[in-house]
Amino acid sequence: MAITGQCLCGDLKYEIANEPAMTGVCHCKNCQRQAGSAFSTLAGVPKEDFTFTAGEPTLYADSDTNSGNTVERYFCGRCGSPIYSAIPGQPDTYFLKTGTMDDTSSFQPMFNVWCDTKQNWVKLDEGVPAMAKQS
Ligand SMILES: [Zn+2]
Ligand SMILES: [Zn+2]
């Protein structure tokens, strides 16, 4: 069954053909700033599975990152909701911000990354692998 989602204002709507195989939480400072929150919840989606059914995202090329890679952050130019990020090391994958999915009930993170910059109040699930940096 296709997964659907949208930004806050609804200008951007998307569809994903298959259930994402990889899910995680990123605690890097840049994700905190972009989300205006404690972390990003992410799902790795093959590019060919992802389609915008409405609208075109705006790109922010984020080059001031811990990894040194330029992260392409795509968001709604009207309401600001982040939709997905793309990194040069994995050109065939979009890292979807899973809070934008219509139904988040199946989301279950498989790992935590950049825990070095995790906010102090956040308690990690002991059953979920946590990496200080990327992997
Ligand atoms: Zn929007
Ligand atoms: Zn991050």
Automatic annotation (TrEMBL):
UniProt xrefs under Pfam families: GFA
Database matches in Gene3D superfamilies: glutathione-dependent formaldehyde- activating enzyme (gfa)
Superkingdom per UniProt: Bacteria
InterPro entries membership: CENP-V/GFA, Mss4-like_sf
Keywords: Lyase, Metal-binding, Zinc
Coiled coil: none
Keyword Zinc applies: yes
Single GO MF descriptor: metal ion binding
Domain CENP-V/GFA span(s) in chain numbering: 3-108
Family stated for the protein in its record: Belongs to the Gfa family.
Name recorded for this polypeptide: Glutathione-dependent formaldehyde-activating, GFA
Organism this protein belongs to: marine gamma proteobacterium HTCC2143
